[in-house]
Structures are given as structure tokens and as C-alpha cells.
Amino acid sequence: MKILVVSHTYIVDLNCQKLRELAKLDPNIEVTIVVPKRWKPGGVQNKIIETKSLNQGNFRIIPISNFSENNQAMLTFGLDIIPLLKDFQPDIIQVEQGAKSLAYAQLITLNRLLGLKAKNIFFTWWNLPYETKFPISWLESYNLRNTDGLIAGNQDGVEILRQHGYTGMAKVMPQLGVDEELFSPSNQTQLAEKLAIKSDEFVIGYVGRFVEEKGILTLIKAVSSLQNFSWKLLLLGRGDLKETIISQATDAGIKDRLVLVESVPHDTVPNYINLMNVLVLPSETTYKVKTLTAMGWKEQFGHVLIEAMACKIPVIGSDSGEIPHVIGDAGLIFPEGDSISLGNCLQSLLENKDLEQELADKAYEKGINQYTNIALAKQLFDFYKEILEQKKGK
Question: Which residues of the chain have pLDDT under 50?
Fold first, then answer.
């Protein structure tokens, strides 16, 4: 099976692990990743990444000249992609730039013009209802009509595209998995001492951006009701809400229980997660369905949840977006924005060590079975085989 994956995401080597694992599943699998030759990451001023090729036998990364260096929807490729397609002759072409992507339309068209007969697949994270007008409506319609398989990072993404006319095969899975060698259970006694966290203190943790839509202020309110228990609140991240967090913790009389750590290198994040007795993702949807616009935000997945699961840490999440599907019965769910319900969830763990252990075991089992790069590679391979079998049946 020859698989061509196209996305700016894979200019970062760390993001390629799932596809590396895919290439290891069967000696007959060949994976070629096409990345833009030049790309400007979001939020990085005046920084252009010059990508490099990589050849590891049946796993390759090939930079191709590109138009638009910082707009996912407008990204397209130069003529040097044509000889690559002719030489590789892929069975699967997967473009991870969304349903309204010009690059996806380009690859669909080249697939047809070059007579490749590959199956067209795209990936999307988009989970908010939206309306389109010409010419975007035409572009999306063209892409969906010529799609053999859809992969979405969340359930909402599939449902929205069904509403836009897509009737084909679909798979829900995240774009990136968790590295179970990096994110694994470990003792962090020295780090706890460094952060002045005592061995008998229950550590309530959060990892992510310090912004309102992540629900941190709801978390502050929730823990403020638990002052009869021994705990610390460990917040790892950064953002505009930092001073507000400190101010509200001070007003609530819990500033001395707040451990605030600025963003750290990715490979040290597991150390902090392993300090926690529970990780909380209290995201809050800002999108209002009745407005019928694409403005706003809803949790698309919650990657930190599966990182905590792999570390055997219990998880609590709000019911925003994909969070309930990610957690399932392997953790606790509360209504978004409801600090009382969140406080009750936390109290149930503070009072019941057996429940804490039960949820830790369930989280670990689900994380390892469903969300590691190896697990996702197997799911992806099975989806490809299903699509190709459908092709033979026609």
C-alpha cells in the first residue's frame, strides 16, 4: 500500500511519529509525506522554516515548492509535485488541510488528470457549523464530491460535513497521537520538593493556555470551595489571563495553594503531569448555535487529556466539544462553566482514593489502547484497507 500524506503539520518532526509507526506495520507499506518547502508557523513573527527532505526507506518526507507560506486554506504546490506523483503512484492520497482546502482540490485534480486512481482522503479539525458562499461553496462541494474517506478529529466535524452533503466513509481520530515512551507514569519527588508540594497534598492540575475559553476561572471557583481539604493547584502554561488568575486566587484566599509554572519544553511536560493526582480540562464553548456563524470556539479534542491518560493520571473534563468522547467512562465529566459540579467531581476524588485509582487505571487503559501513535497508526491502516476494499467491490 502506497500512502501519500500532504500537510504543513509534518514540517515538525515530532508530529510524524504516527506516520512512522504506520510505515512499520507492514513491509508492503510505503509512506511519503509532502510538506511545503517554505512555511511560516502561526504566531512566529518573520520566521520562515526551510524544510528538508528525509529518506528512511519506506518512510520519506519530501519538501515541494509552495504558494502561500502561512495560510492553510490557500496552500498549493508547484509543478515539482507532478513527477513525484507519477513516480510514487499512490493508492491513498490524504490531504490534511480541511474541507475547503485548495491543496486538496489540487491533489484531487492531479489524481484524476494523471490517471493515478488513488483514493482521496482529507483530515479536518473544524467543529463549528458554518455557511459558505461562492466560490468557497463550489470549492467545498468539489472536494466533498470527490472524497472517498473523511478523517475528523472530533464527532462534530463529521456531523457538520454530513450537513454539507458528504455521504461517504468517515473515521474519528486525532491527527497526532501521544508518545507513550515520553508520557508514562514516573515518580517526581524531586520536582515536587522544588515546587514546595508536600507528599500529602492532593495536586489538581491544568496544562494549556491561560485564556477564558479554557475555563481556568471556573476551575479557580471550583477549588475555592474545597478549602477544608489539603491540596495544591498546579497550572502549567501561559497567556493573557495570568494576572487575573493570581488576582482571583488571592481574593479567594487560596494564593498560597497556587503553583503557577510558565510553559516548559515539551519533553518535560510529563514530569509535571506526573505530579498531579488529577488533570482538569474545564474548556468552555464560546460559539452560540443560534447565530449561525463560524465565530467562536469549542474544544476540538483536548490532547492534554490523552497525555495525562498515558501517565496514568485521572482526568476530569467539561462537556465542551470532543472532551466527553475522549474521556468516555475513563474519567469524570461536568457541565461546562459549572464550578459547583466541578467542585463536586474534585471532592469525590479527594474523599475516595479507591475512585482515584479506578479512574487512573481506566484512563491508562484507554490512552494506551486508543491514543498512542502506534494505536492510531493501526486504526488508520484499517481505515485505508476498508476504503480500498470498497474500491475493489465497485
Answer: 290-293, 393-394
Domains in the chain, CATH or no CATH each: 2-177+373-393 (3.40.50.2000), 189-370 (3.40.50.2000)
Query: How far is residue 67's CA from residue 65's CA, in Å, rounded to a whole number?
Result: 7
> For the chain, where are the alpha helices, taking DSSP H only?
17-24, 81-88, 102-113, 136-145, 155-163, 189-194, 216-224, 242-251, 269-273, 303-310, 323-327, 339-351, 353-370, 373-393
Query: Measured between alpha carbons, how far is 358 from 330 in angstroms, rounded to an integer?
Result: 9
CA distance 177 to 17: 8
Report how far residue 19's alpha carbon sits from residue 24's, in angstroms, rounded to the nearest whole number: 9
Phi and psi, residue 223, nearest 5°: -70, -25
pLDDT, one tens digit per residue, over 130-166 is 999 999 999 999 999 999 999 999 999 999 999 999 9
pTM assigned to the model = 0.94
DSSP 328: T
